[in-house]
Amino acid sequence: MRKNNRRVPNLVLLFSVLIIASPSNGLVSTPITKIAGMSFYSEWGSGTVHFEVESPVTGCEGGFWLDTTLVGFEATYSALLAAYHANQNVTVSGQETEVRAGLGGAGPYCKLYFFSYE
After folding, report:
1. Segment 93-118, tens digit of pLDDT
2. CA atoms within 13 A on the CB side of 68
3. What pTM does this model have?
């Protein structure tokens, strides 16, 4: 009986992820991937961090961007750097409704919504 109880939270998590990643809310998610590179712009916008992933998703072929003015910027930025330097597997979700081109025609980059270590 305990085994069945453990499945319920897993199913709830699965359905939550499916709802969050559904096309109706403008989010797209990568498969498990790694951060392939990072770019830092001190004077573009209010400061922006771009990062690329090894397995990009349609609509976010350049990667993802993170706005330095957001409340959670420092924690997210620190975790991204740690994942990049550790060559850590990650999953990334971005808002395809907030897309930017990179400098020099790179991109498109989707606004980072969330990422997690895998």
Report:
1. 999 888 887 766 677 999 999 999 99
2. 12
3. 0.74
